[in-house]
Amino acid sequence: MNEKDTIVAISTPQGSGAMAIVRLSGSQALAITSKLTKKSDFLPRYATLSSVFDETDTLIDEAIVIYFKAPHSYTREEVCEIQCHGGLISAQMILQACLKAGARLANAGEFSKRAFLNGRLDFSQVSALAKLIEAKSQNAAKILVRQLKGELGDFVEQTRHALLRLLAHSEVMIDYSEEDIPINITESILSELEATKERLRRVYEFSNMRQGTIEGYRLSIIGKPNVGKSSVLNAILLNDRAIISPIAGTTRDTIEENITIDGNTIRLIDTAGIRGTQDPIESLGIEKSIQSAKQSDLILAVFDVSRTLDEDDKEILNLLNSFPDKHCLIAYNKNDLPVALDINAIEKCLKVPCQSVFINAKDSKECAITLKEIFSAVLKHDEVGEEILLTSAFQIQAVQKALDSITEAIKVFGNLELELFSYNITDALRAISSITHPYDISEMFDTMFGEFCLGK
Ligand code: GDP
């Protein structure tokens, strides 16, 4: 495989539709398009109606051709887009004609890879593009488009710039301590570093809390056996997906289904009832329920109002209390039966903010309306404004690494251990740079010599 090859692919999905697009990228893109259309006068960024011929000069389609002259194209190479008729045949025939005229079939993601290698997109933009195509909600799409436009890249650049300046200062203090170093430099280094750490911390914490926006929300329905968890799931889905039974312990494994609310995908997970048990198989199911809750953004804890509060209910409350950063909801189910549950005692045990609602899962329509309204309000509350949001586990991990290194740098700077300080700042730089493009030590020298008149 050669990066210099001219590559071609059908860029639109296969199937019937009004149009399809065959895209060529590389030095021969224009020559190949000219050969197929018998035209050579394509103006960059103009749509030109063209007949398209195969290698035997047979007319295969009428198409619109758009030529993007390098470097003003997606890949920064010569690019031609042939917008032909949709369906399965035309685009395939044009693709074959391009291959016969010297193009090579593009590998998966190769156009974007070239865009990255040619400096048109950074890692964060490539990642945003891949996620945008699979976006799980309108909210996610809006955030990913912002990332694609370079918003996260700008944030990373600002952070890198701040860290590079600090590194350059530190290097100067190590190597050129006799030189003209501004006074109060130690205080300014420390305060700039603290400010950088604070900016990163805010983005990190916010992103950790809002991953559901990008990845799709996970909602675990938890509770002791027989409170009506499966009935609640079925009510929300308005079908009989889960088996409902008065026999406790019927749901031994998790059941998962997707619903869409206000354009957001929510993955509903009906978990096995949590209770004290000696049964090894049931214990496995319970462990899975707890893990599922831990990995969820929303928790719906179901209690049965017709039964008195017991140790198993208290276990559920303890679990809720361990989730201060999640959206926790309590559904008091079986509201059609006389109330025996001590609601006040439950509210007293709660240490996390928790919205509660009375439902009757047997009246599935009413129950679904009530719960969906609450989910919708939670999603509205979660709408992301102008804040920067990291959109992948990789980006979150990178910021976490940078934060750890900065914390260490602040510690060693207190003892004026400058070499260790530089080492930790370089680590932070590497971590944060991995979000967009790898860190190169020459950037530090550029900053260092650019900022100080050392007279050497
Ligand atoms: P799970 O073990 O928590 O999943 O509970 P199920 O959904 O299997 O329900 C246990 C039993 O409670 C079944 O017999 C249901 O029909 C019944 N049940 C569920 N919700 C309600 C409700 O709101 N009212 C009444 N009266 N019974 C309910």
Molecular structure report:
There is one protein chain. The protein is of the alpha/beta class and 456 residues long. The chain is built from 16 helices and 12 strands. It has helices spanning 29-37, 90-100, 110-117, 123-133, 138-148, 151-175, 185-209, 211-215, 229-237, 280-294, 311-321, 343-349, 364-381, 393-414, 418-433, 441-451, and strands at 7-10, 19-25, 47-53, 59-68, 79-85, 104-105, 217-222, 255-261, 264-270, 298-304, 327-333, 354-358. The strands form 2 sheets. The protein has a 6-stranded mixed beta sheet, with helices on one face. A 6-stranded mixed beta sheet has the order 8-9-7-10-11-12, with helices on both faces. The longest helix has 25 residues, at 151-175. It is flat. It starts with 6 loop residues before the first strand and ends in a 5-residue tail after the last helix.
Number of helices: 16
Radius of gyration equals 30 Å
- Unreliable runs, pLDDT <50, ≥5 residues? none
Largest sheet: 6 strands, mixed
* CATH topology term of the largest domain: Rossmann fold
Task: Furnish the topology, listing elements before pairings.
Blueprint: E1 7-10, E2 19-25, H1 29-37, E3 47-53, E4 59-68, E5 79-85, H2 90-100, E6 104-105, H3 110-117, H4 123-133, H5 138-148, H6 151-175, H7 185-209, H8 211-215, E7 217-222, H9 229-237, E8 255-261, E9 264-270, H10 280-294, E10 298-304, H11 311-321, E11 327-333, H12 343-349, E12 354-358, H13 364-381, H14 393-414, H15 418-433, H16 441-451
Parallel strand pairs: 1-6, 7-9, 7-10, 10-11, 11-12
Antiparallel strand pairs: 1-2, 2-5, 3-4, 4-5, 8-9
Helix pairs in contact: 4-5, 6-7, 6-15, 6-16, 7-14, 9-13, 14-15
The structure holds guanosine-5'-diphosphate.
